[in-house]
Amino acid sequence: MNSQEILDDIVAAIRPQLGKAGAVANYIPALARVNPCQFGIALRTRDGVEAWAGDAMTPFSIQSISKVFSLTMAMRLAGERLWERIGREPSGNPFNSLMQLESEQGIPRNPFINAGAIAVADCLVTCGDDPKSEMLALISSLCDEPVHIDEEVAASEAATGFRNVALANFIKSFGKLDNDVCTVLDVYFRQCAIPMNCLQLARAVNFLCRDGSHPFSGVQVISARQARRINALMLTCGTYDAAGEFAFLIGLPCKSGVGGGIVAIVPDTLSLCVWSPALDASHNSLLGQKALEMFASRTGLSIF
Ligand code: DON
Questions:
Q1: pLDDT tens digits, residue range 16-40?
Q2: Which atom of ligand 1 lies nearest, measured to the CA of 117?
Q3: CA–CA separation, 236 and 223 (whole Å)
Q4: What is the bridge-based pairing of β-strands 40-45 and 270-275?
Q5: pLDDT in tens, 198-238
Q6: Cα 266 to averaged position of ligand 1 atoms, centre (Å)
Q7: What is the mean pLDDT of residues 267-282?
Q8: Rg for the chain (alpha carbons), in Å?
């Protein structure tokens, strides 16, 4: 497989479609200003071969992709106890929905919807020493470059994140959030506000195609079993109410973010990241999804 040629071809096919459909997330004011006409793609193989094309070096807000790293930390810290507070079923609902929390007594369906990621952040506050610094340290080590929090994006979401405030309070009302709502949301909003580029993200999730082992040091980040479980959750829940469509069209574990990024894993083979800021109705990157479809059909790579 000539990875560079494939990525170059995908960029050439996607470029003419930029700016034609979809819309950037505007419910977080700092994200509404992003130019939608951008597209990047990068991959890293299990053995460390890298390729990238288009705007792969332009940083963007990772948003919900951060939920992969927070889940990794929580699985490390809390082990099986984590699942007393969070389910493992697809929600079939939008990422920020409140509906199921009422009927399911404050137990979020999975760790990737916002309610679930808030429950994960609560676990990190309980079990960790300094979750924000620990998350930055983990991501920086995984991508071998320092990463930081964009405080403007974090403040912008904190000022307008009414649904997340509602979700956290709702979980708390069922006695299923141990820590102060503001403390938990502070972790959650800041983890979402980390800027990274496609290559950094392809590196940072590479441990998921290596049975949990660190892409540079080879040390286990998590066990092989835990890595398989994160991949399973990404496939079934990583793109919210579009997870079935992603499995059908792409056939790879994926995790999206409203900044327009999507990471995908080909177990035992490679990790990749695509980015284009304009989103579809499910809040997944429209052209990012198309690019992943092209990649899967061109390479024949799929978990099925
Ligand atoms: O909590 C939010 O709404 C955002 N910080 C993250 C949501 C998100 O990225 C959903 N992904 N497609």
A1: 999 999 999 999 998 999 999 999 9
A2: 1
A3: 20
A4: antiparallel
A5: 999 999 999 999 999 999 999 999 999 999 999 999 999 99
A6: 24
A7: 97
A8: 18
DSSP-derived secondary structure for the chain: --HHHHHHHHHHHHGGGTTSS-B---SSHHHHTS-S---EEEEEETTS-EEEEESTTS-EE-GGGHHHHHHHHHHHHHGGGGGGT---S---S-TT--HHHHHTTT--S-TTSHHHHHHHHHHHHHH-SSHHHHHHHHHHHHHTS-----HHHHHHHHHH-HHHHHHHHHHHHTT---S-HHHHHHHHHHHHT-EE-HHHHHHHTGGGGTTTB-TTT--BSS-HHHHHHHHHHHHHHTTGGGHHHHHHHT-S-EEE-TTSEEEEEETTTEEEEEE-S-B-TTSSBHHHHHHHHHHHHHH-----
Question: pLDDT digits over 135-172, tens only?
Answer: 999 999 999 999 999 999 999 999 999 999 999 999 99
75 near 82, Cβ under 8 Å? Answer: yes
Q: Distance (Å, rounded) from C-alpha 158 to C-alpha 181?
A: 12
Q: Per residue in 155-171, is it b (16+ CB within 10 Å) or e — as a string?
A: ebbbeebebbeebbebb
Instruction: Give the integer Cα–Cα distance in Å for 46 and 210.
Output: 6
From ligand 1's centre to the CA of 64, what distance in Å? 5
On whether the CB atoms of residues 264 and 254 are closer than 8 A, the answer is yes
Residue of 64, 110, 118, 255 with the most ligand 1 atoms within 8 Å of its CB, for mutation:
64
Token couple for 22: 């979809």
> What's the predicted TM-score (pTM) here?
0.98
Provide the token pair at 169: 């309070």
Residue type at 49?
Answer: V
